[in-house]
Write a structure and sequence with these properties.
The complex is a heterodimer of chains A (about 500) and B (about 300).
Chain A lengths: L1 H20 L5 E7 L36 E6 L6 H17 L3 E6 L8 H6 L6 E5 L3 H6 L7 H6 L8 H4 L3 E2 L2 E2 L2 E7 L1 E5 H6 L11 H11 L16 H13 L5 E4 L2 E4 L4 H16 L11 H9 L5 E4 L2 H9 L8 E5 L10 E11 L5 H11 L6 H16 L9 E2 L6 H12 L8 H6 L1 E3 L6 H17 L5 H15 L8
Parallel strand pairs in A: 2-3, 13-15
Antiparallel strand pairs in A: 1-3, 4-13, 5-6, 7-13, 7-14, 8-11, 8-12, 9-10
Helix pairs in contact in A: 9-10, 9-17, 11-12, 17-18
Chain B lengths: L11 H16 L1 H28 L2 E2 L7 E2 L3 H8 L1 H34 L4 H9 L6 H11 L5 H10 L10 H29 L3 H9 L4 H12 L1 H16 L3 H7 L10 H11 L3 H30 L1
Antiparallel strand pairs in B: 1-2
Helix pairs in contact in B: 2-14, 3-14, 4-8, 4-11, 4-13, 5-8, 8-12, 11-14, 13-14
Classes of the chains: A alpha+beta (about 500), B mainly alpha (about 300).
């Protein structure tokens, strides 16, 4: 008998391990299961001002999706994003009031280019997940973003969505994602640091020359303070540099006769590298330890160890104001400088998007789409965000609105949102003059990350050795990109 | 006569063998049952991935649209990629540096601590402490140590003047800096093993040597080191295997830069697999590495068996 018990225990242990090996994933274990009585009706009502008032909206009785039990897993904020989690929980509650037949699973997996392949392979990606503007082509080519054109065409507010941002996920007329917010890469400036060193604050309509002078004057290498923390590590280094390539009038690639050709080894590219050379060697304005990724550079900014950083403004502002203890008036958001006076202030267009998992069923996809757009253009969201601003104020924290919203700023809804932002002094205000100069440029659609990696290598060579032959280095990188990647692409 | 038409009769020797296997199974049934969980774990997390790695190295992997057989193409990509050669050189350099800078440290510390009569426990814990620091904290800490205005450069500029050393961004220093940091963090665990071996050497050998007039160095050279020789060889092989697969610090601190100076072979595999999503090429690189490391593992196994005997 004892032997039998032991054998059973061993087999049970083995079975437990097998069970433990299967399933799991990043899904938050909490499920918001609503009762399954499909009684209410769909389709939000729309006010005269083009705003949904969905707290009172009732789904229509003929909505088939109400008669089906549907489970969707949603992109849920990380555990340290307490306020955002509260906002999302409130949204889930309201969504379930309207769609009681839907079970919502919270997934705190956040998009990572290094993990998406594994997630899709294991069918572990949530029903919808976040991603970035850079990823559109990459996800679409691999079949990792559902074609939601039909859902989009039926969406009543599609014409009020910011077209510049949304177009990043409309490829060949098909829609693959929904924009949440966006930015045009900017230069965030520590005004307090410039004031302390009596450095003149440049005008928003500034040039490379102004950036160079400001960085040189602000830098204090002996104290570990740099004028500008250009990124020099990881793919973000190539990404940082590409802003300057655009400003100089360059492009990453050209497509001619169905073929993709590397174009960054142009005169514009050389000019952009020369600026880097000047900042590094002539002005001694970048950190001595220039092996900085995004987190390192933005961290240095929030610690007051650099006067400027090139990034989407929201990240540095969030860190500087809510972690670095700076005040909104200490931090200015500039457009990227023009190469020369009168030139364009191009910055790489970036943004956050939500993409629906193509492995989900059609019903799940539609319900995910409804969830994504549930709060768009609603008064409920405005109420939620106002509460969030008030809660932050009580805690001495700041609210950083997106630089570019999913809605058009001049729309009625945009005006309502801005009216709320303007009411509170703990909301960061982007200067209108600066915003007017922003000029977002989309990235290349082919092998963008490989290009950034290659350019990171070139930037590192410029930072490592004075007098590097810029044209030769760019040509080398272009040759590698051409032979390794671009030659294999056929543009349809 | 057509022999194949005859029913095949199991030979007597086969039957005997089968009975023997059944008897062994019966005799050791509980042992095998207790082994089952471990066997399952090994099968799922070790053997299956190894076999799959071999298979995948001949495929273009696309988990959504399906895999495509590509023959030797992935291996061709590996041999055509100039970064592979660079990463092998970097890996060998890293392994060499780890030997020169780090291998002797735990031996010296273990001998030194074994000689300490008071507070030995404190020194053991103190030496092991860096091992328990989470790596994220460790990397942040050492980025500050290596900073242009960090404590190391502050000391250097105070003593020697000049501008200090760009530990992270100077290609001459970047790998050395990583190895130094890793030595500091990891020597403690090896030291504990050496210390156990050193303390197990009979004290009367040392006393006899002292009576014969042997000094400290003679005692170390003729008693301590020969007594722990087997362990030293084993640790050497383990270190070679471990460092040949190193990529964590290189990835976290410098992402393989500057100018690929810290791009190790394993880091390149990681980049192929995760950033470029070329899982077939990454598998091919893994298979090639597996073959090289197998040789080291066989040597280690043989030495260990020799030691046991």
């Amino acid at each position: 008998m004892r032997k039998l018990m032991t054998a059973t225990a061993v087999l049970a242990l083995s079975a437990t391990m097998l069970a433990a090996c299967s399933g799991g994933g990043d899904k938050d274990n909490t499920k918001d299961t609503a009762n399954t009585e499909p009684t209410k009706t769909e389709t939000a009502t729309t006010t005269d001002e083009g705003t949904k008032t969905d707290a009172t909206a009732q789904p229509s009785a003929e909505d088939e999706l109400l008669n089906k039990k549907i489970t969707i897993s949603i992109y849920y904020p990380l555990p340290d994003q307490v306020e955002n989690r509260k906002l999302e929980d409130d949204k889930i509650r309201r969504f379930n009031e309207k769609y009681p037949n839907v079970t919502i699973e919270k997934s705190d997996w956040h998009y990572n280019v290094n993990e998406i392949g594994v997630k899709m392979a294991a069918n572990e990606a949530p029903t919808f997940f976040n991603t970035f503007a850079t990823e559109a082509k990459f996800l679409i080519e691999r079949g990792w973003a559902a074609d939601i054109t039909d859902l989009w065409n039926k969406y009543e507010f599609k014409d009020q969505i910011n077209p510049t941002l949304q177009n990043q996920f409309i490829i060949d007329g098909k829609v693959y994602g929904v924009v949440q917010k966006g930015y045009s890469t900017s230069t965030v400036v520590n005004k307090k640091l410039l004031d302390a060193k009596n450095v003149a604050i440049p005008s928003y309509d500034w040039t490379w020359d102004d950036m160079l002078k400001t960085a040189k004057a602000a830098a204090d290498p002996g104290k570990g303070v740099s004028g500008i923390a250009l990124m020099g590590k990881g793919n973000e280094s190539g990404w940082n540099w590409t802003n300057f390539l655009f400003e100089a009038g360059g492009q990453i690639i050209n497509t001619e006769g169905g073929k993709v050709k590397a174009a960054f080894n142009s005169e514009a590219g050389v000019k952009a590298l020369q600026l880097y050379e000047q900042l590094r060697w002539d002005a001694n304005a970048i950190p001595k330890d220039w092996a900085l990724g995004w987190g390192d550079a933005v961290g240095a900014f929030s610690q007051g160890r650099t006067a400027m950083v090139v990034a989407g403004a929201e990240g540095p502002l969030e860190q500087a104001l809510n972690q670095g203890g700076m005040k909104p008036e200490d931090v200015l958001t500039y457009p990227m400088p023009a190469a020369e006076a009168g030139g364009k202030h191009y910055g790489i267009l970036g943004g956050d998007y939500l993409v629906i998992n193509p492995n989900a069923s059609k019903e799940e996809q539609e319900m995910a789409f409804r969830y994504i757009t549930f709060d768009y253009f609603t008064d409920d969201w405005l109420v939620s965000v106002e509460k969030d601003i008030q809660a932050r104020k009580a805690e001495g924290k700041y609210f950083i609105p997106p630089q570019m919203n999913y809605f058009k700023e001049d729309s009625d809804y945009g005006k309502k949102a801005n009216a709320i932002f303007n009411k509170y002094d703990n909301v960061y205000k982007y200067a209108a003059e600066s915003n007017a100069l922003l000029d977002g440029q989309p990235e290349a659609q082919y092998n963008t990350q490989d290009y950034y990696a290659e350019m990171t290598n070139v930037v590192q060579q410029v930072f490592s050795k004075k007098g590097v032959d810029h044209k030769a280095k760019l040509d080398e990188a272009a040759k590698i990109m051409q032979e390794k990647f671009y030659d294999k692409i056929e543009v349809k | 006569m057509n022999q194949s038409a005859l029913p095949i009769q199991p030979s007597e020797s086969n039957q005997t063998r089968r009975t023997g296997i059944v008897q062994i199974l019966k005799k050791h049934l509980w042992g095998y049952l207790f082994l089952l969980p471990a066997l399952l774990l090994f099968a799922i997390f070790l053997w299956l991935p190894i076999i799959k790695g071999f298979v995948y190295s001949f495929y273009h992997i696309d988990f959504v649209k399906g895999n495509t057989f590509v023959g030797w193409d992935n291996y061709k990509t590996v041999f055509d990629d100039p970064d592979v050669g660079k990463s092998i050189r970097n890996t060998l350099y890293y392994m060499g540096l780890a030997l020169v800078m780090g291998f002797w440290v735990p031996i010296v510390f273990s001998i030194a601590i074994s000689e300490i009569r008071r507070f030995q426990g404190f020194f053991r814990v103190a030496a092991y402490l860096p091992n328990v620091i989470p790596v994220v904290v460790l990397y942040g800490l050492w980025r500050w140590f290596y900073d242009s205005v960090g404590p190391i450069n502050a000391g250097i500029t105070k003593v020697f003047g000049g501008e200090g050393i760009a530990f992270m961004t100077d290609t001459k220093w970047s790998m050395i800096s990583i190895v130094f940091m890793e030595t500091w963090q990891q020597f403690g665990s090896a030291m504990l093993l050496y210390l156990a071996a050193v303390l197990s050497i009979p004290r009367d050998w040392y006393e006899a040597a002292e009576i014969d007039g042997a000094g400290v160095w003679m005692r170390i050279r003729h008693i301590t080191l020969p007594s722990v020789k087997g362990l030293i060889v084993l640790m050497l092989l383990l270190q070679l295997i471990g460092t040949s697969q190193g990529f964590q610090a290189q990835l976290a601190m410098l992402d393989g830069g500057p100018m690929n100076a810290t791009l190790t072979y394993s880091l390149l595999i990681v980049k192929y697999a995760t950033t470029r999503l070329e899982l077939g090429v990454a598998s091919a690189m893994g298979v090639l590495m597996f073959m090289v490391l197998s040789v080291l593992a066989v040597i280690q196994f043989r030495l260990q068996s020799k030691g046991d005997n």
